[in-house]
Amino acid sequence: MSIRDRKAYVRAVKLISTHPWFRKDYEKLLTIHKTYFNQQIHEFEYFLPWHRWFILKYEDLLRRVSCRITVPYWDFTLTAGEPFTGAIWNKTAAGLGGDGVGPPRLCVKNGQFREGKWFLIRSAGGGCLKRNFLRDEIFPDLIALQQFLSMFSSADKLKDFELMLRNDFHNNIHFFIGGFGGTMSGLDSATAPEFFLLHAMVDKIWADWQKKSAKHLYPTEFLYQNGKMPGTEYYSRDFLNLSQQPRCTAVKYTGPDKKMKPLVAMIQKLSARPSVINRIPRRNWAHLRKEVIDIFKLKAVEQQRLKVLHLLFRPRVALKNNALQGVDRKLGFSVKKVQEMAGSGK
Ligand SMILES: [Cu+2]
């Protein structure tokens, strides 16, 4: 994303969240997430389609500022080794600002959303945006994502796919950003500007999985749901096809970046062979956190299932991140090692 586009996005977010023209609609929309937080929108039934609806509604607001604006996705896999150095956390007008200061208060004191200049919505109690980056936590990397997509590539794996997407690519990340006491770690998370960039990433991963077949696109579990999605006038099925959303809205995610394409392609190929890819020294990214279970009220059966699934992704050789340098350090694994594995054909 160009600096210019980043700046335009941040400017639009600031406008809808502060200008009296938008403020009321903005508050109303974001409060819905809090109202239904523990009523199925973070469970299998509605998690994916509901948040797709939510992103679209937010985008509708942004488009009242400029019709060219869409919500970008934060591809945290590209900086999984050093997640808090990514451009998203830039303190200039092209980013969302950095970590909070503290404890105890944890207020963000730099960038466009800093304390005193920008406030959370009223239902969140107003006040400052709080962040408490958990810098030692392990984000899923590029290999993790490709292996994940490959492992659950069959349409009948929807349940496992959704569960791990929800927990490891979403619940955990919320907590890694918000930490103990930050805005992203609680009921008011939707009022943090980074919320939508994370959710767009989750939605993109789902969209990539959906591309595999018509059965992936329209799973019976979502297609024949009776009730409307909480707080909306829509059914899950209205949001299954990205290019045919209500009111003739089509969404298309771009990427991966041109310069990343060869590496992604290589990893994609290797991902079909877990025994090979798990030999690349990496950090163990798939995990279940007690705090995260509590925040999102993860069910006991889901916890059990996740423990089993996580074993499939455990790297055989554990790596300390500081063993890497440069690009490798940022990615969380050695590119040379991937090339070797891909070349050896073992
Ligand atoms: Cu949510």
UniProtKB/TrEMBL annotation:
InterPro entries referenced in this protein's UniProt entry, alphabetically: Di-copper_centre_dom_sf (IPR008922), Tyrosinase/Hemocyanin (IPR050316), Tyrosinase_Cu-bd (IPR002227)
The keyword Transmembrane helix appears for this protein: no
Keyword Nucleus: no
Record keywords: Copper, Metal-binding
Protein name in the entry: Tyrosinase
Gene Ontology molecular functions: metal ion binding; oxidoreductase activity
Tree of life domain: Eukaryota
